[in-house]
Amino acid sequence: MPRATDILIVLTYAMIAVVAALAFDRFGLMSTSFAWLMGAFVFLIAGQAHSAAARSIERKTFEQEIHELQAANLSIIEEMEAAQARIETIAGAIRAEAVEREAALTNEVKVLEDLVRRMGAVPPSQRGATIAPDATGDIDIEVVRDALEQNRVDLYLQPVVSLPQRKTYFYESYTRLRDAKGAIIAPAVFIRAAEEAGLVGEVDNLLLFRCIQIVRRLTKSDRRIGIFCNLSLRSLTDETFFPAFLDFMRRNSDLAGSLIFEISQNAFDERSPAAARNMARLADYGFRFSIDQVRNLDIDLAEMQRAGIRFAKVEGQRLIEAVRTGEQIAQIEAGAIRPEDIAGLFARYGVDLIAEKIESESTVVEILDIDVAYAQGHLFGEPRPVKEEILETTADSVRLAS
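^ EAL domain-containing protein, sequence as received from the core. Prediction below:
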């Protein structure tokens, strides 16, 4: 209680004592000396009562403060325990993620080492095999092997756009090799060299693996990117490569929304039971498939749906030709389906139709009459190499080299 208040209270009690003494004396209730003694006694009793009341109030206040401190202390302890639990949860998640990343990296290195080892295991009789497939020049398998071992693998992307807006929704990827001098090795050349040396399967596998490594880096900052990546029938049926590759994809199943495996129609039709099972395993992890080079439009859409096929690419001119001649499409009797209903028929089975190799505006006009939702071709953009800085830093979206 403030000191000034205490002084006022004491003065008040003193005045009460004086008034009481004067009253006792005035009314003759007692002698003057005894009246003043009684006044002093009243002052003492009042002071003691006030002191006791003040101590009681202070004690209650002190007890209340202690209670509040105890409650605050308990609250702090609870918050600390909750924070510690959150820290332990986060630490556990970080440790688990680190273990997962380490396992994925170990698996990735193992796959690459195995592929490179298999590339190097060429019989002496086949080493140095040199071919001249066309005017692009000669090349031997050692140049191809060196390009793969030194990671001189570039990713080219070509946009797949929506119609009629022409907004880019997907990209198709193409892998290209460079020799030690930086010159591009044409696909026909290195594939022929690989076939000559009996290494085409290893080359297919390495190119596929390199493509996925690059796609994984591209999609770090934007999971909305959808990229078609070619998958050969040899890779699907390679009993040495595919189990490790499947485990790698399982560990990178977060790419399922961005990566679409693409095989040709012939490969899809000729796939073995083992290849079909391996496709199903990839589909179990959420990965989608596309078929390209579609020449026969009388396809079984139900079978494609069961196999996880979500896209079908048909050359624009081939699609227009099928409509003009009234061919049988998707097991629908010839002439029984209107051109504008073809894309809808595919869509009912979860398959988006893509018109590819579009090179003129007149073709676009006819494709729009068929109501195809997506298109691809040089008219909308040629395949261009991904800039190196995109692979080194995160980007807001995929940019292509000009």
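The two ends are 82 Å apart (CA to CA).
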